[in-house]
């Protein structure tokens, strides 16, 4: 039976918040949840009023505990392959988003939950959050990008430590390793803290932000000479924007710029 609303959408000004609403299943990623992320992600990417997307989980215990293992029990190997494919297609919408995507990690982020956080551009963790990729202890490996994205964030040696030992990181450890960008203060809801922290994105120049993300992502694994050419192409996108002219006017008039995304 399909779930009605496994992922809820809440709009807070220019920030869209996507919440996995499966607290009874520790916000595990079901097929319906993955499809909902794809559908809502496409909607938000195309919405000119949205400047940033925050992903979180319902409650305060789990951001996402990974794949829904109860659902997996009735799957054949081919069913599992198709399910893993949804991580690439439907979560891939968010991974490729030209708008910044931020994980507000409100509890445990294990397995596919951490892989969901890793597709995000920035990660904010609650003080009690724990992060891990325990798949090898279950006879598999991270299959939704964990073996590729985690080394790019924390380095090869630390990624192997987490994956091969199934090591769990506390929020302060994850911050020290560079796996998260920020740990929220005690007593502050992580979503509220994340939204306040990204205010420069919500009020910023969306064309410039998209160009910066594109330059970083497109140039990450290429030789420097090619990366500089990629940067030039993306820089040129900003030169053609009205937002750039608005920034110059605002500087001359000693006021805060009002960006329209044009």
Automatic annotation (TrEMBL):
Species whose genome carries this gene: Sorangium cellulosum (strain So ce56)
Family annotation (PANTHER family): ENOYL-COA HYDRATASE, MITOCHONDRIAL, ENOYL-COA HYDRATASE-RELATED
Pfam families assigned to the protein according to its UniProt record, in alphabetical order: ECH_1
Keyword Iron-sulfur belongs to the record: no
PROSITE patterns: ENOYL_COA_HYDRATASE
Gene Ontology molecular functions: enoyl-CoA hydratase activity
The protein's name: Enoyl-CoA hydratase/isomerase family protein
Record-annotated membrane-spanning stretches: none
Family per record: Belongs to the enoyl-CoA hydratase/isomerase family.
InterPro entries, per the entry: ClpP/crotonase-like_dom_sf, Enoyl-CoA_hyd/isom_CS, Enoyl-CoA_hydra/iso, Enoyl-CoA_hydra_C
E.C. code: 4.2.1.17
UniProtKB keywords: Lyase
Root EC class: lyase
GO BP annotations, alphabetical order: fatty acid beta-oxidation
